[in-house]
Amino acid sequence: MSIIQQHTASSLSDAWRTINIDALTEDSSLNFDTSTLHPPLPEISEAEVRQLNGQVRQLLRGGDAEGALRGALESPVYNGPDIAKEGHLQTVIEVLQSIKASEMTPMLQRIYGAEGGAECLDVLMKYLYKGMASTSSGGSAPRTPTRLAHQSTGFSQVGSRPGAANESTGAAMSVLLSWHEKVVDIAGQGCIVRVMTDWRRV
User: Fold this and answer.
1) The pTM is what?
2) CA-closest candidate to residue 188, choices 114, 108, 129
3) For 30-163, where are the alpha helices, taking DSSP H only?
4) Suppose 79 and one of 21, 41, 55, 150 were both cysteines; which one would form an S-S bond, judging by CB atoms 3.0 to 4.6 Å apart?
């Protein structure tokens, strides 16, 4: 075989495709644990989240909606079981739905002006996006009480009228979009960027 034929045969080989270039680069993520770049987050158990949600709902029943919202946002569930995260999401949405539209902007301004307020609004934006995602996917949409339909037989049948679930989902999405607009008005579009680039997920 001539030198030209050998060179052509080696050039046409696909062996070079199997080389992992990243493994040869000193600064590659393959050569060190990327989890060391992030500080460890404290793990929150389901019982702790249940207790926190109980305190938030107690404030809400007592008429302190702002305190309930601040309490829910100051203790986001970053590291915990999925059921705990979903439970806290439901609590945050419950608080948001209980606040009148006319109270949104003044309340957000007070929270934003207080110490740690910018972080609270960033956390609120995270829960808004998570709530929108779960509502649009038909997942854990905010729960509404089930209506009892009285029958002519004298018995009560658990059920709801057709389309009620879609109306509930639409109403929940409308509330979340309204809050999203108010948060952007107060905290600016930088709030969206910070949420999108933050590695911590609620």
Assistant:
1) 0.70
2) 108
3) 46-61, 65-74, 82-98, 101-113, 117-136
4) 41
